[in-house]
Amino acid sequence: MRKRWFSLMAAGLLVGATLLPAAPAMAAPTFKVPFPCGQSWSGQTRSDHSPAYAVDFNRTDDLGDPVVASAPGTVDRVTDLGGTSYGKYVRISHAGGYHTYYAHLNGFNVSVGQSVGYGKVIGWVGSTGGSTGPHLHYEQRLNGSDIQVRFNGALALYWGTKSYTSDNGCSSGSATGTVNTSGTPLTVRSGPGTGYSAVGTVADGAQVTIQCQTSGTSVTGTYGTSTIWDRIGSGRFISDAYVYTGHDGYIPGVPRC
Fold first, then answer.
1. Secondary structure (DSSP) of the chain
2. Are the C-beta atoms of 106 and 64 separated by less than 8 Å?
3. pLDDT by residue, tens only, the chain of 257 residues
4. Count of other CB atoms within 10 angstroms of residue 115
5. Sign of CA dihedral 211, 217, 219, 224
6. How wide is the angle at C-alpha 63 spanned by C-alphas 61 and 67, nearest 5°?
7. Which of 34, 125, 216, 238 could, after both became Cys, cross-link 70 (CB 3.0–4.6 A)?
8. Separation of CA 124 from chain center
């Protein structure tokens, strides 16, 4: 009887185990392109890459361009391997066992234990480690294993080269700027370029609300040469080269027109 009791108890435990529902797998974070809002980058994948599913990002004159966190998480590695392998790289831990890697960086802008969100600059594009030229080596991993990269849930191109435009850190917000022309009124155009018709002026020193930004004619002004144009109203654009915004380039959080 004693033997039979243990057999029945073991069977009951086995049945109980099989009736327990499996823990649901956590959904992957919504990963975004690891560059500031509105930027377009060429992403290359190739079967002989190490690891295979990593993406190499490039664009013209990209040395020193900012790299941002592709999803919220916690920085758990900020490492410099010198002239080998990843060189300077950052790893971010995300929910559900996911990690992202950002390698060959020129420098760091975060520290271990730091919480980061979309659009947070974590470092700058470089050519450290085993790199033969400036680019960002980017990976997504699950429980330590290399996985195919997805942005906004969409699978990256395997294998080949594709242009990716970032919506990382974008919002529907606006920003303010101050016109600086050393006294001359700034011409307002109907579109983002000097070829568009003049529709008014803005006085030197005036504060403007920037609703969105876009690229257009290159203009050399108070703050250097820029192709960025700021929309300050419906059909009203001014060159960012004459506007102080506190940012060198596109303003984080301001949408692209």
1. -HHHHHHHHHHHHHHHHHHSPPPPPPPPP----SS-TT-EEEEEE-TTSSSTT-EEEE-TT-TT-EEE-SSSEEEEEEEE-TTSTT-EEEEEE-GGGEEEEEESEEEE---TT-EE-TT-EEEEEB--TT-SSSBEEEEEEETTEEE--EETTEEPPSSEEEEEE--TT--S--EEEEE--TTSPEEEESSSSTTSPEEEEE-TT-EEEE-EEEEEEEEEETTEEEEEEEEEETTEEEEGGGEE-SSSSSPTTPPB-
2. yes
3. 333 333 333 333 333 344 444 444 467 898 999 998 888 999 999 999 999 999 999 999 999 999 999 999 999 999 999 999 999 999 999 989 999 999 999 999 999 999 998 889 999 999 999 999 999 999 999 999 999 999 989 999 999 999 999 988 876 678 899 999 999 999 999 999 999 999 999 999 999 999 888 889 999 999 999 999 999 988 899 999 999 998 888 888 777 77
4. 12
5. positive
6. 115
7. 34
8. 12
Dihedral angle over CA of 68, 73, 74, 77, nearest 10:
-60
Tokens read off for 227: 């192709």
Type of residue at 178: T
Tokens 């900012």 locate to: 66
